[in-house]
Amino acid sequence: VLSNYVKTSLKESDMSLRTSKIQLKIPSGCDGTVLVKNLYLSIDPFILALMKNQELELPSFTLDSPIYGFGVSKVLDSSHPNFKTGELVWGFTGWEEYSLIKDPDQLFKVQDKDLPLSYYIGILGMPGMTAYVGFFKYCSPKKGETVYVSAASGAVGQLVGQFAKIAGCYVVGSAGSKEKWGFALMKVDLLKNKFGFDEAFNYKEEQDYNAALKRYFPDGIDIYFDNVGGKMLEAVLNNMRLNGRVALCGMISQYNSLEQPEGIHNLINALVKRVRMEGFFTSDHYHLYPKFLEMVVPLIKEEKITYVEDIAEGIESAPGALFGLYSGRNVGKLLVVVARE
Ligand code: NDP
Where does 228-311 have alpha helices with state H? Predict the structure, then answer.
C-alpha cells in the first residue's frame, strides 16, 4: 500500500506491506466484477507519477490502499458475462495477491499460451505496444535511416532497437551499467550482443553527450526514440538531420529528481532541421493491439526477436524493485512474480 505521497524522490518506505484475510469469492452486491489471483506484476516508470499524485489520465493512488499497475492474473471467480473461472487475463490490477477487478472490460485475455505468461506485461503488453506504436507510427522509419534509442536496454528500448534493425536502420543505443553478482554487467554489451544494435555506449561514462552522439552519428540522427528527456534530449536536437523525427516516449531522467528538470535551452536546431517532435501515450492506441500481436508473435516464435526480463521474487520485493528502476538497477523488463500458477 502507499504509505505517503512522494514529495521529491522515492523511498522504499513510501510503501508498506499489509496482510488481511479475504474470501476467495466475489462478495454479494459486486455484479459485473471478477476476482483474480495475480501472477505477475509489472514495475513501470509511470507508477512514481501516481505516487506523487500527478495528473496522468489515470486515477492517483489512495493512501493506505494498494498500488495498482499492469499484471497478469488468473480468474478465480466471475460475475461478468465475458470472463470465466480459470481464464488468464492481463491489464490493470492491484499490487496484491488477489484483486477484485471492478471494471473487467479493461482486461485483455491472454491469447497465446505457448509464450511465457510474463510476456503479457512486457513484450506482448503495454511496453511492447509502446515500442511498436512509438517507433512505427511516430518515427515513420525508412530503410537506411539512423536511429538513436536512450534507456535502450529496458522494457521498451530493447524492442525499439530490434524493430529498428528489422526496418533496416542503423541503430545506436545508450544505457548505464550495473553491478550484479559481484561483477559489472555492462548493459551496452547486451545491446550489441543480444539485441543486435550496431553500436552502444554507456551514457554514465560520457562527459559530453554532444561529442558522444557526433562519434556515433557523424552525419546526424534521423530518428530519436526518447525515453529519458533532460540534457540528452537537448544534445540530440543538436545532432538531428534534416526532416528528422523525435518520438517523446518518456523522460525518466526527470521523474525522480530533486532538482528542477534541465530545460531545452535552444530549439533553433529543431527549427532549422525541420524536426518533427511528438509526444504519445500508448493508451490512445490499444485498437492496434491485434495488429501488433500479428506482427510480434511470429517474430518471437521464429526467434527473430528476443526479450530480456528482470524478475524479482515475491510481492514483498516490489518496493525495492520499483526503487531500483530509477537508478537503472534493472536489466531488461522489470517485473515481480507473485505466484506462478
Ligand atoms: P526501463 O525498463 O527502461 O527502466 C528504466 C530505465 O531507465 C532504467 O533501467 C535506467 O537504465 C534508465 N534510467 C533511470 N534513471 C535514468 C536517468 N536519470 N537518466 C537516464 N536513464 C535513466 O523502463 P521502460 O522501458 O518501462 O520505460 C522507458 C521509458 O518509456 C520511460 O521514460 C517511461 O516513462 C516511458 N514509457 C512511456 C509510455 C507512453 O505511453 N508514452 C508507456 C511506457 C513507458 P540505465 O541503466 O540505462 O540508466
Answer: 230-237, 252-255, 268-272, 289-301
Is pLDDT of 82 > 80? yes
Summarize pLDDT for 266-324 with one digit per residue, the tens: 789 899 999 999 999 999 999 999 999 999 999 999 999 999 999 999 999 999 999 99
If one counts the domains in the chain, the total is 2
Task: Tell whether the model's pLDDT for residue 180 goes beyond 80.
Answer: no
Structural domain contains residue 39 = yes
Residue 319 lies in a domain: yes
Same domain, 162 and 67: no
Q: Do residues 198 and 251 both lie within one domain? A: yes
Is residue 288 domain-resident? no
Beta-carbon neighbour count of residue 187 at 10 Å?
27
Ligand 1 centroid to 12 CA: how many Å?
19
CA distance 286 to 291: 10
Looking at the fold, whether 36 and 77 belong to one and the same domain comes out as yes
Q: Which atom of ligand 1 is nearest to the CA of 204?
A: 48
Checking if the pLDDT of 178 tops 70, the result is no
Here the CATH number for the domain that contains residue 243 is 3.40.50.720
**Whole-angstrom Cα Rg for the chain:** 20
- Ligand 1 closest atom vs CA 330: 9
- For residues 325 and 269, what is the distance between their CA atoms, to the nearest angstrom? 32
Atom from ligand 1 closest to the CA of residue 44: 26
The angle subtended at Cα 148 by Cα 239 and Cα 286, nearest 5°, is 125
pLDDT at 248: 98
Q: Which atom of ligand 1 is nearest to the CA of 282?
A: 40
* Residues lining ligand 1, Cβ inside 6 A: 44-46, 127, 130, 151, 153-157, 175-176, 187, 227-228, 249-253, 280-282, 325-326, 328, 330, 333-334
pLDDT band for position 263 (cuts 50, 70, 90): low
Closest CA to 116 of 301, 325, 283: 301
CATH of the domain at 63: 3.90.180.10
130 and 275 together in one domain: yes
Q: Is residue 3 part of a domain?
A: no
For 150, the domain range is 126-283
Q: Identify the pLDDT of residue 262.
A: 72
Residue nearest to atom 10 of ligand 1 (CA): 328
